[in-house]
Write a structure and sequence with these properties.
- The chain is of the alpha/beta class and 177 residues long.
- It folds into 2 domains: 63 residues, no CATH class; 82 residues, 3-Layer(aba) Sandwich (Aldehyde Dehydrogenase, Chain A, domain 2), CATH 3.40.309.
- Helices cover 32% and strands 10% of the residues.
- The strands form 2 sheets. A 3-stranded mixed β-sheet has the order 1-2-3, with helices on one face.
- The longest helix is centred in the N-terminal third of the chain and has 16 residues.
Length: 177
């Protein structure tokens, strides 16, 4: 982390705390520029930590009573870079996959999601720039150049104007209905 990013993350913490969030550091002291992990409770959409992608050791907790509440929360906002679901109920896993949108999904893990070098990783919408890793990464960071070359013999001239020739009538009969 560089100084600018540390200031950004500390700004998120200060903003959240000033707007009523409870911050629980998971170990007391920072180590140089390494920030302590922090859990944030009672967060609201007005807090910067809930408006920007964090990319840091801050974890806002959003409680819900029913899975549908979590789906509503996710689907009412910009699509996240990644969605992490923890649970072994196969039907709930399928629902998470089918009823939400995100750049990627990881079930029962977090960090190893980005470490899969042959699985596409990347966001959608404001969260992304396409996929990277593996074949999809090659396609994302490459630009195919389409090239059409017309040779000296040009069979297409047979369907050029003036219209009404026998070949035009045949084309209309076979292809235009």
């Amino acid at each position: 982390i560089n100084e600018r990013q540390q200031q950004r993350l500390n700004g998120y913490l200060q903003d959240a705390e000033s707007k009523g969030a409870s911050i629980i550091p998971l170990y007391p002291e920072a180590q140089g520029r390494r920030m302590p992990y922090a859990v944030l409770l009672n967060v609201t959409d007005e807090m910067k930590v809930m408006q920007d992608e964090i990319f840091g050791p801050l974890l806002p907790i959003i409680p819900y009573d029913k899975l549908e509440d979590a789906f509503s929360f996710i689907n009412e906002r910009d699509r996240p870079l990644a969605l992490y679901y923890f649970g072994y109920d196969k039907s709930e896993q399928r629902r998470v996959l089918h009823e939400t949108h995100s750049g990627g999904v990881c079930i029962n893990d977090t960090l190893l999601h980005v470490a899969q070098d042959d699985m596409p990783f990347g966001g959608v919408g404001p969260s992304g720039m396409g996929h990277y890793h593996g074949h999809e990464g090659f396609l994302t960071f490459s630009k195919a150049k389409g090239v059409f070359i017309k040779q000296r013999f040009n069979a297409a001239k047979m369907i050029y104007p003036p219209y009404g020739k026998a070949l035009h009538k045949l084309v209309y009969k076979l292809f235009v209905r």
